[in-house]
Design a protein that fits this description.
The protein has about 100 residues and is an all-alpha fold. It contains three helices and no strands.
Length: about 100
């Protein structure tokens, strides 16, 4: 049980790490493409200004957008025995009959 949870957690962590590496590589290539496009269209100073402002706005959004607090999940109810389920069913059935007889 613990080994399975540990393996699942490690798998999730490795996938998140691989996703972060891919995201970083993509951000580098897209930044380079934007730089080349802007530098050819305008000049290197304007390209630096635009790319810097985009990263500044992104950083400000990440810092100041609040993260929702996680609501603690209530513990799952303990498994009940079949006898308790049958007793509850019979009590409900008897209550229904008592209401109908009145």
């Amino acid at each position: 049980m613990i080994e399975a949870r540990l393996r699942a957690g490690l798998t999730r962590a490795c996938r998140n790490l691989a996703g972060a590496v891919c995201l970083t590589v993509a951000a580098i290539f897209l930044t380079r493409a934007a730089w080349l496009s802007l530098a050819l269209s305008y000049n290197p100073q304007t390209a630096a200004l635009v790319v810097g402002l985009v990263y500044l706005v992104l950083a400000l959004l990440l810092f100041f957008i609040p993260v929702r607090r996680r609501v603690p999940v209530a513990a799952a109810p303990r498994a009940t025995s079949m006898a308790a389920v049958i007793d509850a069913f019979l009590a409900g059935r008897n209550a229904g009959r008592a209401m109908r007889d009145d």
